[in-house]
Structures are given as C-alpha cells and as structure tokens.
Design a protein that fits this description.
With 248 residues, the chain is of the alpha/beta class. It has helices at 36-42, 69-83, 96-107, 126-137, 141-151, 155-167, 202-212, 228-231, 233-247; strands at residues 3-6, 9-16, 21-25, 47-51, 89-94, 112-118, 123-124, 174-175, 188-193, 216-221. It is built from nine helices and ten strands. The chain has an eight-stranded mixed β-sheet with strand order 1-2-4-3-5-6-9-10, with helices on both faces. The two termini are 32 Å apart.
Length: 248
C-alpha cells in the first residue's frame, strides 16, 4: 500500500497515471477514497496523486487535531512531492483542501508550480462555523454514508476530531491564510459556484483572493453548489483543462 512517513506520522495516498505531478488535496471530511473520479480523469495527462491528511482516510489517526492542522497538511503535501521524486507539483484542492493547496504555495513556493483552489474562501465567520457544526450533529444519512466511504468504520472518530478542531474557532471564526495571499507567486485558478450554500460571500471573497495573488484567475458559474468539483464536474473540468493547457 502507498504509505510514507513525515514527522513520525504515517500517511496514505492513492496514485494513477504518468507525467507531471498533480496533487489532489481533499476537503476536511473527505479523503482520497472520494476522489476516484478525479484520479481517473486526470491520470490521462498527469501522475495524479490524492493524499489522505493526518487523521483521515487510511492515514494514521489523531486523537486531537492541532489548531494548525491545515498548515501541517501543507507541510505533509510538500513532503509527499519530495517522496515521489518530484521537484514541484500542480496542487488541486477543494474546500479545506484548497486552503491546504494555497498554504503549500505560501510556505513551500518551490514546490508549487500552480494551484487550483476549488470552492474555498479566505475567512469563515463564527456564525458559519457554528452552522456547520450544527449540521454535522444531525448525522444525516447521506452525510454519514459519505463519511463512511471516506474514512471507514471509524468515521465518527474522524468527524468528531475535525468538529472539535472547528469548534475551537466557533467563537471568532477561521482566518485560514492570515493575510498571506500576497505571498503566492505561482498561477492560481479559483473556481466556485455562486450558489455555494456552504460558503459566505463566495463571490466577493474569491475575487478578493484572486486580486491578492500575482497571477490569479477565476471561474464562476451560477449553478451547482459545494463543492463545484462534484456538483458541476463538467464545468469544473473544462475550466481546469483550459488553465492546465496554458501552463504547458
């Protein structure tokens, strides 16, 4: 099985295809298991690799996720690039994984050729964090089935650990990037649905993020939901393919 160790943590990844490295970074409650369609699609042009972050998927479990879990994910992603024998990658993240992709470009600029940041914002206000946690506590059947697919039979431990992390920010909200967007030097494609029910002020926030980076591009659609990569895969892939074509 494809595991590697970084800072004494055992991390799992899935891979397919050959070529330049395209690193898929899942959202918090997702995992590499939920990105089978993307692995199959992008393998035609890229060595496509999907990472399970610490405490998720088939990676080693964590009893408590640290406050800097997203930053640690960026460091782990950089270590995976080196483990695979590449100098740099194209990082494609969705939702919380897009935050990690941007943090990779901020903290390890030499590892990031480009970033595709799908369905994310720079800041999540306290009210929205509280709403996410309230929704999770309902354990809706569709969500529970998704989480079990992503993490296996102990999915509740994973979701509880992530919810505990989110809960520590419930009073003040989350500022994932700390005003560091200007440090991103590689090309970035931001994609989102303007009807995304999970993200507040998605249009305003994404445009602000795009104007903060040296080479930012935006794709919006007025259909779909959260995340765009799954709610409107055809639209997402067409926009992404155009962006990727311009890199070569």
């Amino acid at each position: 099985m494809p595991y590697f160790f970084h800072n004494e943590h055992q991390l799992f990844y899935r891979e397919a295809g050959r070529g330049p490295l395209l690193l898929l970074l899942p959202g918090n409650t997702a995992s590499s298991a939920t990105y089978a369609g993307e692995l199959d699609y992008f393998r035609r042009r890229y060595h496509t690799v999907a990472l399970d972050f610490r405490g998720t998927g088939q990676s080693e479990r964590l009893a408590v996720w640290p406050d800097d879990w997203w930053q640690q994910g960026a460091h782990d992603a950089a270590a995976l690039v080196a483990h695979l024998g590449y100098e740099r990658c194209i990082a494609l993240g969705s939702s919380g994984g897009a935050v990690v992709a941007l943090l990779l470009a901020i903290h390890h600029p030499e590892k990031a050729q480009a970033v595709i940041a799908d369905s994310t914002v720079e800041r999540l206000p306290a009210q929205r964090v509280q709403a996410i946690l309230a929704e999770r506590r309902q354990h809706l059947p569709a969500l529970a089935a998704f989480w079990q697919q992503a993490h296996g039979d102990d999915w509740e431990q994973v979701i509880n650990a992530d919810s505990d992390l989110m809960g520590r920010f419930a009073g003040q909200g989350i500022d994932w990037l700390g005003g560091q967007m200007h440090a991103v030097r590689c090309p970035v494609l931001f994609t989102a649905s303007l009807r995304d029910t999970a993200l507040p002020d998605v249009g305003t926030q994404v445009c602000g993020m795009a104007t903060s980076v040296a080479d930012g591009q935006v794709f919006f659609t007025n259909v779909g939901d959260h995340p765009l990569i799954w709610s409107r895969p055809g639209d997402f892939r067409r926009a992404t393919d155009c962006f990727l074509d311009a890199l070569t």
